[in-house]
Amino acid sequence: MEVTNLSDDLMTKEVIADPHGYYRQLRAADPVHYNERWGGWILTAYQDVVDVLRDANRFSSDRMGFLAQELSQEEQELIAPIFKILSYWMVFRDPPEHTTIRLLLNKHFTPLAIERYRPMVKKIVQKTIQKSIAKGQIDFIKDFAYEIPMSVILELLGAPDLDRDKIKEWSEKIGVFFFIKADEPRRREIACEGINELVDYLTPLIEQRRERPGIDLISLLISAEEAGSLTYNDVLATCVLLVFGGHETTMNLIANGTLAFMQHPDQWEKLQKDPSLLKKAVEELLRYDGSVKSTVRWAKEDVMVGGKQIKKGERLLVSLSGANRDPQQFNNPDGLDITRDPNLHVAFAHGIHVCLGASLARMEVEESFLGMISMLKCPKMIPGTDLSYYPSLVHRAIKELPVILEPIN
Amino acid sequence: MSKLRVTVNHNKCVGSQLCVQFLPAVFKLNEKGQSVIITTKEIDQQSIISTAEQCPQCAIKVLDADTGEVFFPPAELEF
Ligand code: HEM
Ligand code: SF4
Asked: CA nearest A354 in B: which residue?
């Protein structure tokens, strides 16, 4: 097994710029690889990824529980705000606590339930495109991709007037916690600041809803608290999770998808000629360059994965992007094919933690591209642009995407 | 009341277990972690449709066994 020429450093400029190339080599050489530097197993083959994600009995998501084991009491106290909120995030919990929150929220995020937000998203997209056309040249991320998901999540929380720029700033600080960034020694402190600020901002809103309930998600969470099925910590943490999880991932997908089209203008034209391909196209963008590259699980017992012995307590970096380009599962995996069907990608994960916001994100991305293909020629990158990505193991996030937009006459 | 046919599309199912949580008498997971039907006997149309609605992938289809009429999902939700 030839793995010696692949470094275990996942944060090099090359790997951050082209994770797919790295994971392609790793999958071919050693699909269940022990990465000394990260201190855990890296899974890049589709079947192994799916097997682990669908098996919550043997693989835990209890990130904060396992982190607590690694830290001294003192270190834990230093980052108490992180523990106080993130320990209650459903995404980091195992059954049965996970099940309670998931079943409560799921009915508000079903494919059918989110349809009621489609007309609103359509309007936001149209307005944003018109503004962008007027400028001609935009930073696609800041001027376009960011606007849509942020407006939608605030609408769901029944709080469209919250300060978006502040929320974005705090979310970015919280995001630092998920970066495995050797060059940011303050990453935990920064995340604490972000959490404290977001919590201080959301708390009065929660209390206001307790006094005067509406039909929004915050009111729903409070009524579950009052009925005894959730705790106050669950309510607060879930609000933070929805705000945090609800915009950046979707923003990045809209950006990554636009870049993919710019690199494959034939696929843009195909969609423009036949907009009935829209839903399939969005699935393909998720598979081709999804915005969440990986997630983590911990073995709850000694277990075999892809022929390797994993020991109880060891952690696994489950590469969603790796699985999504596995030639064993997808024909021509490195090609963009908006007609691909079936396309059972793992961009939203699989199993019990499959993204709660998946239908919402799909709808937002559909409406974004539907708006674009109806009003615009395939965007063009400004020549000389040096594309770079934030150094994260988790997010696939372009820093800036300067483009030229031209309306269809 | 018409007889129901319920199918789970394994090119769509991601093994969220949501259908199993809502209707454990009807759905269970197979060895691959995907949902399969145990039986649809004695299950009323309303509860099966509201469970199918919970599926994030629209993998569960509910049809009239005789006429083939689709009760869920509506065509515009399928992807
Ligand atoms: C393209 C956009 C998105 C992508 C790629 C994405 C990806 C993911 C992934 C991979 C997971 C599973 C993590 C794991 O299993 O460890 C997840 C979970 C989750 N996502 Fe998303 N997400 C997106 C948009 C959203 C939106 C818009 C929301 C909020 C409305 C959201 C809320 C959540 C929540 C609450 C969970 C936890 C679900 C659970 O534990 O049951 N996501 N997401
Ligand atoms: S709800 Fe849908 S995705 Fe989840 S297990 Fe059932 S059929 Fe599969």
From this structure: B16
Ligand nearest, relative to CA of residue A318: 1
Residue of the nearest CA to atom 11 in ligand 1?
A: A355
Q: What is the reported pTM?
A: 0.96
What domains does chain A contain, in order, with CATH numbers? Answer: 13-404 (1.10.630.10)
Q: Which structural domain range is residue B20 located in?
A: 4-77
Give me the CATH number covering residue B22.
Answer: 3.30.70.20
Condensed to tens digits (0 to 9), the pLDDT of residues A250-265 reads 999 999 999 999 999 9
As for how many domains chain B has, the answer is 1
The CA A90 to ligand 2 mean position distance, Å, reads 18
Digit-coded pLDDT (tens) for A57-75? 999 999 999 999 988 999 8
Cβ–Cβ gap B32/A54 under 8 Å: yes
Three-state SS for chain A is CCCCCCCCCCCCHHHHHCHHHHHHHHHHHCCEEEECCCCEEEECCHHHHHHHHCCCCCEECCHHHHHHHHCCHHHHHHCHHHHHHHCCCHHHCCCCHHHHHHHHHHCCCCCCHHHHHHHHHHHHHHHHHHHHHHHCEEEHHHHHHCHHHHHHHHHHCCCCCCCHHHHHHHHHHHHHCCCCCCCCCCHHHHHHHHHHHHHHHHHHHHHHHHHCCCCCHHHHHHHHHHCCCCCHHHHHHHHHHHHHHHHHHHHHHHHHHHHHHHHCHHHHHHHHHCHHHHHHHHHHHHHHHCCECEEEEEECCCEEECCEEECCCCEEEEEHHHHHCCCCCCCCCCCCCCCCCCCCCCCCCCHHHCCCCHHHHHHHHHHHHHHHHHHECCCEECCCCCCCECCCCCECCECCCEEECCECC
Asked whether B45 lines ligand 2 (CB < 6 A), one says: no
